[in-house]
Specification:
The complex is a heterodimer of chains A (119) and B (125). Chain A is mainly alpha-helical and 119 residues long. Chain A has helices at 6-10, 12-37, 47-53, 57-83, 89-118. Chain A is elongated and about 50 Å long. With 125 residues, chain B is mainly α. Chain B has helices at 14-40, 47-56, 60-87, 95-117. Chain B starts with 13 loop residues before the first helix and ends in an 8-residue tail after the last helix. In chain B, 14% of the residues are buried. Classes of the chains: A mainly alpha (119), B mainly alpha (125). The interface between A and B is medium-sized, with 34 and 35 residues.
Chain lengths: 119, 125
């Protein structure tokens, strides 16, 4: 029974952080999707309209926070799915590194994109 | 605590479908997230690159796809509440009712989202 516990294969902190990020995402992704897509009669999204929105420090924090939490949650979740196929420790280590590099790269790209609207 | 048969995950029934639904939506959302960050980072090329791309992505086909995306987000997000509750030791014995309530809420929110986004299908771009 214990071998099937997610917390054992992935590490207990990864498991706890997956839950913490889940709860944070309910709030941040809720805000993001409502503001970007579900305000009735909103004009089209374009460079200038995003510039106006991210002028506010609040949205800079929301967007950067969302980016970090969602990437952690997505890539750690993907890791859990991959590990459930039962891989050797060598493969697990390799996949850890691939996912960390991919996630960190997307985080940097996202932050650069956010900054391009502010400058 | 003594485990009864009802407390042990048997890998079938409604709980299995909820688990499968969570995984399938997870994979869809990871795929979308990667595309989304790549698309939005076109802003690094300025409005000359960003605006035509975003205009294409707000055409009716993509408005429809976005309704599907919203469904995946709602299913994954609300079912996720159930998973967090279980990990805190709450509601495991009432998992079927909790799943039904959360999915009904997802359905209601999705109908609302579709009603809001529907006019975007007929926008002049």
């Amino acid at each position: 029974m214990s071998e099937t516990l997610a917390s054992k294969a992935q590490g207990v902190w990864a498991w706890i952080l997956q839950r913490v990020s889940a709860v944070v995402l309910l709030l941040l992704l809720g805000i993001h999707m409502f503001v970007m897509h579900y305000i009735p009669g909103e004009p089209l999204i374009e460079f200038a309209s995003v510039q106006v929105r991210v002028k506010s420090l609040l949205f800079q924090v929301v967007d950067a926070g969302l980016l970090g939490f969602v990437l952690y949650h997505a890539f750690n979740g993907l890791r859990a799915i991959i590990f459930d196929f039962g891989l050797s420790e060598g493969w697990q280590r390799a996949i850890n590194w691939v996912l960390i590099v991919a996630g960190a790269s997307l985080f940097i790209l996202g932050i650069l994109a956010l900054r391009s609207f502010i400058e | 605590m003594k485990l009864t048969k009802r407390d042990v995950y048997l890998g079938r029934g409604l709980g299995m479908w909820a688990w499968l639904l969570h995984r399938v939506t997870a994979l869809l959302l990871v795929f979308y997230l990667i595309l989304h960050i790549l698309v939005i980072s076109s802003s690094l090329g300025g409005s000359g690159l960003f605006d035509p791309l975003l205009r294409l992505l707000q055409t009716p086909l993509f408005v429809l796809l976005e309704m599907g995306l919203t469904a995946a987000v709602l299913i994954h997000g609300l079912n996720g509440i159930r998973i967090v509750l279980f990990d805190l030791g709450l509601g495991v014995r009432r998992q079927k009712e909790i799943f039904a309530v959360l999915m009904a809420l997802a359905g209601a929110l999705w109908v609302w989202a579709v009603l809001v986004a529907y006019p975007n299908l007929f926008r002049v771009l």
